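request received
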Amino acid sequence: MAAFFLLAPLAVYPVFLMKAMCFALFACAFNLLIGFGGLLSFGHAMFLGTAGYAAAHAAKVWAFPPEFAILFGTAAAAGLGLVTGLLAIRRQGIYFAMITLALSQMVYFFYLQAAFTHGEDGIQAVPRGTLFGFIDLANVWAMYFTVFTIFLAGFVLIYRVIHSPFGQVLKAIRENEQRAISLGYDINRYKLLAYVLSATLAGLAGATKALVFQLASLTDAHWSMSGEVVLMTLLGGLGTVFGPVAGAFIIISLETYLAQLGAWVTIVQGIIFVICVLTFRRGVIGELGNWLKKPL
Amino acid sequence: MKLKRSIIAAAIAAFAGTASVANAQVSDGVIKIGVMNDMSSLYADIAGPGSVIAARMAIEDFGAAKKGMKVEVLFADHQNKPDVGSQIANQWYDVDKVDAIFDVPTSSVALAVNEITKKKGKAFLVSGAATSDLTGKACSPNTIHWTYDTWMLANGTGSAIVKTGGDSWFFLTADYAFGHALERDTEAVVVKGNGKVLGKVRHPLNAQDFSSFLLQAQASKAKIVGLANAGGDTINSIKQAAEFGIVKGGQSLAGMLVFLSDIHGLGLDKAQGLIFTETFYWDLNDQTRAWTKRFVAESKGKYPTMVQAGVYSSVLHYLKAVEAAKTDDGSKVIAQMKAMPTDDVLFGKGAIRKDGRKLHPAYLVEVKKPSESKGPYDYYKVRATIPANEAFRPEKDGGCSL
Amino acid sequence: MTEIFGVPTQALFGQLLIGLINGSFYALLSLGLAVIFGLLNIINFTHGAQYMMGAFVAYLLANKAGMGYWWSLAIVPLAVGVTGVVIERLMLSRLYKLDHLYGLLLTFGLALIIQGLFRNEYGTSGLPYSMPEQLSGGRNLGFMFLPNYRAWVIVASLVTCIVTWFVIERTKLGSYLRAATENPALVQAFGINVPRMITLTYGFGVALAALAGVMAAPIYQVSPQMGADLIIVVFAVVVIGGMGSIMGSILTGFGLGLVEGLTKVFYPEASNTVIFVIMAIVLMIKPAGLFGTQK
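response:
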């Protein structure tokens, strides 16, 4: 996978790939929570949006260099994750999903009203700056490899988490919460940690995306964005490692290359949802892994 | 572990590979124009596929084939999202070698495309978006704002109504930047004309039910209820205003941003009496009627809105400028467009100012009663014509540094 | 004239009445969703699209078949209910053994498809639908002007809500239904055709959505996205009311209408969001909802 993203920009438009990588990271972060933690969040857009706005504001208005802008955005999302996690984590299943939806709607409303976001105009013309003081990110290749590094770092982190003892406990909680409690694990702490981790990495994706596109807008905080990340993860394969990346890639490609078809894009997305749920439940990577008989 | 090896490989490659790859040269053999707008949601009927039809008609009327110039049209749906729009703009300019982008309704997307166009030295002709910042704070030597803007709407509708006695207003404003801008500009005009604003209420975007807000408007007893909103919100406001007997009770509705397609969606029985400003109407004169007949044949019965007319006019003038300047370099063509006076069958004779503002007359229209309408889309009576030099914000007031 | 918090009492009463009317509309709209979730444990995200279909079929009946509003009230719910039955038979029935999540995702996907198809066909500016003659106009109540149609909305909603609640909670048919969803195997052993009951229940819920759509057509814009904006509000109502409780949804619908009405007077910009604030609070304190029981 690393090799693919390394070589792909020679053939495919780099900005498109950067967008795909940001969303792939977003989807991987989401998958951590639902695929491995068993918690469906309907409000993940609030982390993408918060990090985007925080990073954009930091870079444009406070003139932070890009590395600090991204760190600031990520930290903002982590903070929001902690607060919302504390409120939401005690509920399960559909109730958890609904609380996250409600919280994300309130966050959306806040961004709609707040002056610094400029409402639906968004924060425009965000400067990319120079990374570490000497790499000029206006150069598309410098930007590309920065995004690539960030994506890879996030992905590796998730991979390590999934395969660590912490990840095992998380899976145990997902499978049978009562049994995990009886074994002495403080499940709420584990779930909260998974949630905050997921929020932080989603924030990392959002902050990076704000610098790639040099803008932060309301769409990133809207509930339909939460729906999109569910779609990407579902399509790729819930609970697989590479699934969200594939899912994000497919969906972004669909949106970009079918943009000419107008209303058909939503129809196609709907059809994918339906097919995935009815017959294709393991998702693209999941089916592939099933066929190859090894977990992907 | 496989993963570790690939990480090392990636890290090496990442720091070694900051060499830039040369982009292919911009092709001069083909003029590529991109029509970007909302093809699938709120503004699909106002611009949408109709704008693409208008662009194609302009290319045909320009006679590109006969002059030996190859012109291609691309189109895409920006879904009213600035990030989708900027991604499409970047891809069009970098990969597809598009020379100029047209239309782009939704001000937030237009502002994003404006920035990208300036950075890459291409050309941007805005027909769909309304924000007057495009010829103000955000003005650029690569952008021309064609059909209408918020200042023109506020001034045209606002001052015309105040002059005819509508001197007390109540605003129903959509609670987002665009709505606030409309309300602010119109309030300024009303106050300047010695009118009074008796109250205002801000409703959330896409509110379905306006009964509560209309009740407040009724209670204010203002002569005019100004609708500082657009799209579905305007349609719902008007529909429910009819239900609550606002107009029957003696108040008048002023739409700040209304299009022909909105009236079509409402029906004359609900929309009659509504007053607003547009810069094009298909039934103005023989020339516009003839053009519309051609348009309708392509659009399966939908009549053109001013946004679509603006796309036609801007594409035509753009091609003329490319021909005169003998280049498709964005900055040079825009400069050429400003140097040449404009003339087409839809907007008549006009000019483009230094700050990128296209000038043409505006029309104050009133929606006909159902009994007065004699044919399809026969919806407007033209109440007044505002000459080009008065319709738009004076250049010095914009804050544009060009 | 007396004032409460700066608002004259007369105006306040007018707003409260409007809030009540809107509440009755929310109650009607969430009734179908409450029935489907309460009895079938399916989270029907397609509800908004089915509401929209109701309005559109009413428009088509009026324009293509010359049948007016009153006919539509009877025919449209049946027609759209049938499509619901088809969806249930073909797709939803396969998902009962799985997590609720999949039902939600399926219906979400279906909503996207239906809305996209209608958008393709009809555009987005909406279609005109005129008010039925008998219900147009209104009367001046002194503190406000009340359109007759709005009064009709309250009456129709109340009647429909009470009848539905009664059928499900107090009749034999309703008790079979409730038993069937609690323990389908046992009830089937008694000779009752459980799958058919489930199918018909889903169809009934969809028909309720379509009925709300017909009622909305004269006053709200008839456009493909009319359901999308309402769907999360409706969800909030059902969640707050308690996802298993029909009476809960009805009462919450009315209550929320009132709260929203008050918000529109004092802080109108937040009127769309106040519902979510309440939803978050209720979920944190009593996740099963105000009237619900934890499932």
